[in-house]
Structure formats: C-alpha cells, structure tokens
Amino acid sequence: MRGVRDRNTKRRQMIELENVSKTYGGQTALCNISLKVERGDMAFVTGPSGAGKTTLFKLLYLAEKPDEGTITIAGCNAADLKSSSIPLLRRNIGVVFQDFKLLNNKTVYDNIALTLRIRGFMEREIKERVHSVLKMVNLRHKVDNYPLTLSGGEQQRITIARSIVGEPTVMLADEPTGNLDEENEKDIMRIFKQINTKGTTILIATHNRALFENTARKVFFLDGGILKGEEE
Amino acid sequence: MFSLRLALQSVIKEMWMSLLSMLSIGVMLFILVAVAVIVYNVEKLTARLPERLTVMVILKEGVTSEENKAVQAAIKAEPAVKAVTFVSKEKALDELKKSLKKDDFILKGFAENPLFDSFDVKIKSEGVHIDEVKRLIQKIKSMKGVDDVEYGEMLMDSMYALKSGMRALGLSIGIVFVCSVTFICYTTVKILFYRHKEEIEVYKLLGATRWFVRAPFFIEGSIIGILGGVLGSGMLMGFYYYFLRKLVADIPMFTFMSIPLQFLYVLPAVGMFLGLGGSVLALGRLKY
Ligand SMILES: Nc1ncnc2c1ncn2[C@@H]1O[C@H](COP(=O)(O)OP(=O)(O)OP(=O)(O)O)[C@@H](O)[C@H]1O
Ligand SMILES: [Mg+2]
User: Fold this and answer.
1) Are B17 and B232 in contact (CB under 8 A)?
2) Contact A118 B212 (CB under 8 A)
3) Which pTM does this prediction carry?
4) Which domains does chain B have, with CATH numbers?
5) What pLDDT, in 10s, does the model give residues B61-99?
6) Nearest Cα residue in chain B from A166
7) Ligand nearest to the CA of A206
8) What CATH number should be reported for the domain whose range is A39-65+83-231?
9) What is the domain partition of chain A in residue ranges?
10) What confidence score (pLDDT) does residue A1 get?
11) What is the pLDDT of residue A3?
12) Cα(B65) to centroid(ligand 1), Å
C-alpha cells in the first residue's frame, strides 16, 4: 500500500529537491534545500541577490551537480542519469537564462530554430514554430536581426521565445522580466499562464514581488542559500 | 544536414586558418606522393631487372649428352625461364676469339680449349621477382651435371639493396607525413573547437547530443582533408605537366619515370581519411 502511494506522489512531483546543498569552493550557494513543485504548477522562487536562485536552476538543468541531496526532475533522478540521456532530459526543460545565452553570431531566427534543429525537426515545421513564438513575444519584425542589435528587453523576449518553442514539460525562467517594462512584463506573464494552462510546469525566479503578489501560487523564499519559507 | 551546413559555414568563416591547413596538407600529400613515385619507379626499374640478366649455367667437365638434355629440359620447365640456349665450348671459344680480335694471342698459350659447355638462360621479362630468380639459380646449381651458375650477382644484389633501402625510406617518410597530416587536422579542429566553446556550451544546454556537437567538426576535418588532397593533386598535375614532361623531353634518360595518375583521385580520399582521423582524435577525449 505504502509503495503504491509513494509512487503516486512521485508521479505528481515535477521537481523535487531533498536536502540539497551546493558550495562553490567554500562559498555556500544552497544549504539543505528541500522543495517540491507539482506537475502542472506555476511556482516562484524569490530572494535577494546572491540567494542561490540561479544555482538552484543550474542544478535542475544539470549544469551543476549538488554536493549533497537528491534532485528529481520530470521523473528522473539526476544522480542516476547517464550522461547520454542528459540531452534528452534537457529537451524537456525550457530554460530562460538570466544571462540569455543567445548566440551573437546567429540571427534571431537561427537562435530560436537551434532548439528545434537539435531535436531533428524538419525545416518547414521549424519555420512555422519560430514564427509563431516570435509573434507571441511581439518580435516578428526582428526575425533577421542579430542579438546584439536588439535592446535588453528584446533579447530577453527572444530568450523566452527560444525556451518555449520546443514545448517543454518544465520551464525554468530565471528573472524573465528583469529588463522589461510593465507592458511587456504583463505580456510575458500572460504567455507563461497560457503555457501553464496547457500543462507545462513553470518555475520562475524573480526579485519582482509584483509577479506573484495577489496570485495564489506557491512561492519559495531563499536567502543566503537557505529556504526561509514557502507560501501559497 | 544542419551539421553539414554548420561545418561549411565554419570553413568559410575561418577561411584563412582552413586555407593554411589545406595548403600544408596539400604540400605534405604532394611530397608524400613524390616519395611514393620515386619508390614506385625504383620498384618498376628493378622489376624489369631479371630481363636484362643473362644467367650462365656452367656444366661440369665430361657431361654426357643425355644429362645435358635433361638439365636443359629441367631448366626450360621452370616457369620463370623464357629461353635456354646451349653454348658448346667450341662456340664459346669462337665468340671469345671474335671479341678479342687481334688480341687472340692470349689464347695461344692454351693447348686445349680452356672453356666449358654452358647454357645461356634468359629470364622472362614480366612478373618475375628477384627473389624468384635467386631461388631458380639455387635450384639450377643443385642440378646434376651443373658445375656453377654465374649471373650479375653484384649488380643484382646492389639493386636489391637499393630497392629495400628505398622501400624503408619511403615507408618511414610516409609514416612521418601521414602523422603530420593527421596532426595538422587534429590541431585545426581542436582550435576550431575551442573557438566555439561557448557556442557548444549553449548547444549542450539546449539538449544537443554528443554526436550533434561533434558531427560538424568531423565534417569540417574531412572537408579540410579533402581540399588538402585536391590541392596536392593539383600540385601533382602541375608538376607532371610543366616539369616532368620537359625533363623527359630534354633528358631522355628519365623516360622511365612515370607517375601513376590514380594518385589524382586517391589523394583527396587519403586527405579525407586523415582529416576525419585527426578530428576524431582531437575530440576523442573531450567530454563533450
Ligand atoms: N560559479 C560560481 N563560482 C563561485 N561562486 C558562485 C558561482 N555561482 C554562484 N556563486 C555564488 O553562489 C551564490 C548564489 O549565486 P546565485 O547566482 O545562485 O544567486 P542568485 O540568487 O541567482 O542572485 P541574482 O538574483 O543576483 O541572480 C552567490 O554568493 C555567488 O557568489
Ligand atoms: Mg541569478
């Protein structure tokens, strides 16, 4: 009986951390963190600069390994994953990087298309999808621009477009509205909600209380690598 | 296909480096071929050597005509032998007298014919290896009624030594150059890889497999190898038309020189193989 219930609760968790710690050469970035995000949820991580939000995300998309603790994402235990299946897991995770990680020698189109080319999509479908996500972020007219010719907010929206074009099951958005005006911020949050209602689990890291105030979403408070609280 | 496009873009963007690598590969492959051609020509020369050899089989004193016939038939039966002619000692003496002309007084001191009956054995010109000739000579030596066998031993041995020397030299130069070409591809691909390191990092984060990341570099290494080979072929053609032909026209002694023109299409293939090998080595131990 217990076994069955355990498995069911596991199924329901999209993201689960158990007693996870991470230090960078003596500097503690995360300390004994345990948290859960359920499948289909939209949750927030907040906290001051240096709290460990980006580090948490890096652990989730397997760019870093935890010193201690276990991480489960999309049903996979990160520690058990073979290096050959890491790419396959990453294809299920759409990441909005805090530093964008756009390729400056490629056009907006190619930057977004890359996600799909990596997955082996046909060019015709790539074109359709890229244009549709560009329309969502209101940047269709910038399709042939290079990232460095765009404003910070535009680059951020391209990064968001790239993260959603592959229709991931989990989205990790690190400060996705940091460079945006209120108008665009609203647009982006609207897109996130739209994707979320289609079933994508979303975790957003932000300083901006306005994003989660007056919503009934789960919020994790981080400070100095310690989970200070959790609110619904 | 996307990998191919990336590789082509990279070759074009890093044109100077690619060109430099191709040029060095081209020159190396060309030198490699030049060495191969020299070895090949020495081989060809020595392969035709047995044809120029006349083997003289000296018969023992007082051999009966039956024994004589038997030996002749036995030699004739050897697959490497083209013709056997009997030279009696009288005939040999005549010939000697003829060649000595006025100086035939030398022979006056002999009461009897000092020469001996012998066979002139001609070796087939094609498909006979020197080793085979040596074996044949040993065999004839052991035949009944045969006293000794004389042949251009010194010449043959020195040619033989030259040939094996050339082979060893060609082989070692070949190995060195093959390694150099591989090394050039190795370094080029490694440099290209490190230049694209940040880009590759992003690829990995977006879910690219090991293969997806590496394929463009393998293709790029192969392209550089192929184009290097094409350059080498070009140089070979140039050398062939402008140099060797003039040389042959001026100094007929070199007519025996020849370049097997199959090299023209073998070189790009060799280049591709080495380029691919170099890039596999370059990325082999990286964790990407
Ligand atoms: N690669 C690294 N090497 C050393 N220390 C690091 C590294 N990455 C992060 N840190 C440290 O870990 C702590 C947490 O950093 P992190 O980037 O996770 O903060 P954050 O919450 O994302 O901050 P911000 O809101 O400014 O983006 C910081 O003190 C930082 O200095
Ligand atoms: Mg951060």
Assistant:
1) no
2) yes
3) 0.75
4) 2-47+161-284 (no CATH), 54-151 (3.30.70.3040)
5) 777 777 778 877 877 777 777 777 887 777 777 877 777
6) B206
7) 1
8) 3.40.50.300
9) 39-65+83-231
10) 42
11) 44
12) 107
